[in-house]
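Deliverable D5.2: sample structural annotation.
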Amino acid sequence: MERRTSCLQSNVDFLQKTITKLGADHQQKLDAANRQIEGLKSTVASLQKIVEELQAAQKKAAEDQKKAEDQKKENRDAAGEG
C-alpha cells in the first residue's frame, strides 16, 4: 500500500511540475505576444500619421494647382480685355 501511495505521489509531483512549467512557458509566450502587439500598435500609429500627412500634402497640392490654373485663367482673361 505504501508503495502505491509513493508511486501516486510521484505521479502527482510530476504532473504538478509539468503544469507549472507549461504555465510559465505559456505566460512567456503571452508576454512576448503582448510586447509584439504593443510594437505593432506603435507602428500602426506611425503609419496613420504618415498617411494623414500625405493626404494633407496631396490636398494642398491639388488646391495649389487649382489656384494656379485659376490665376492663369484670370491673366488670360485680363490680357484679352486689354
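Annotation notes: The mean pLDDT is 93. The chain is about 100% helix and 0% strand.
The annotation will be released with the project's public dataset once the embargo ends.
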